[in-house]
Backbone:
């Protein structure tokens, strides 16, 4: 889960919409900018982890965390849902379902369970088939990576199960890629960044270099990279811990102590 949070923080200042000057190179600097921050990706990932850790109602947790962090940068449809009395989903295929799902890949001990609960976490808001598929793909990728499957095998499974085209390199996609916040326009790209990365940091850099929804692309790529490469570098873990509020750090520590790789 820390991999997702670090990715979100690193990508937070490089989002393609910022000043209409997207990053389109891997060697951008600095990696963690002075104004880096956690965004809605982190807040809602932790909300899912809270729900899984303590068996809390997911809708209640998502809404509670959103109210607690109202300026984290939520999408319009999600924000309207979270600050309303409604509980029914709104048929979204946005990447919000995939950005928050990584704790599911650590919590459960079989792939079938991971797929089931990834679907459950998506369906409370993102009940469009693409929204569900994106969440399941990221959660499954995390599970397969952390349980020892190699990357060609992971790629083959995700292609066969979800129909994502994962052959094109990030270099081949970069020039034509435009900002996209849908699952179908970001999940395959985040997976590809993970598949061709040399290490954890490289996965984040590849995802951000597309010049799109940088925080979410790096959040998803970071979740996969942590599960495969192991604990993220100490300097990145330290930066993330410093930027998180104490209550968020406590929840992350409790979750990783029980289910996943700690910091």
Residues:
């Amino acid at each position: 889960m820390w991999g997702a949070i670090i990715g979100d923080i690193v990508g937070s200042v490089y989002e393609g919409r910022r000043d209409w000057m997207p990053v389109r190179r891997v060697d951008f600097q600095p990696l963690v900018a002075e104004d880096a921050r956690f965004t809605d990706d982190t807040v809602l990932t932790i909300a899912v982890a809270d729900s899984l850790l303590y068996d809390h109602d997911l809708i209640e947790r998502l809404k509670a965390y959103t109210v607690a962090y109202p300026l984290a940068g939520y999408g319009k449809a999600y924000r309207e849902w979270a600050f309303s009395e409604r509980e029914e989903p709104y048929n979204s295929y946005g990447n919000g379902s995939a950005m928050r799902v990584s704790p599911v890949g650590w919590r459960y001990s079989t792939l079938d369970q991971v797929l089931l609960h990834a679907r459950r976490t998506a369906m409370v808001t993102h009940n469009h088939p693409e929204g569900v598929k994106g969440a399941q793909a990221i959660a499954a990728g995390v599970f397969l990576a952390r349980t020892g499957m190699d990357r060609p095998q992971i790629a083959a499974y995700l292609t066969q199960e979800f129909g994502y085209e994962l052959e094109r390199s990030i270099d081949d996609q970069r020039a034509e890629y435009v900002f996209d916040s849908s699952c179908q326009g970001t999940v395959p790209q985040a997976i590809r960044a993970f598949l061709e990365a040399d290490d954890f940091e490289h996965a984040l850099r590849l995802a951000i270099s597309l010049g799109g929804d940088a925080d979410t692309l790096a959040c998803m790529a970071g979740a996969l990279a942590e599960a495969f490469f192991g604990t993220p570098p100490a300097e990145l873990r330290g930066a993330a811990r410093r930027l998180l509020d104490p209550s968020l750090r406590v929840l992350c520590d409790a979750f990783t102590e029980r289910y996943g790789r700690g910091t």
Q: What stands out?
A: The chain has one domain: 1-259. The chain has a mean pLDDT of 95. The chain is about 60% helix and 0% strand. The first helix runs from residue 2 to 11.
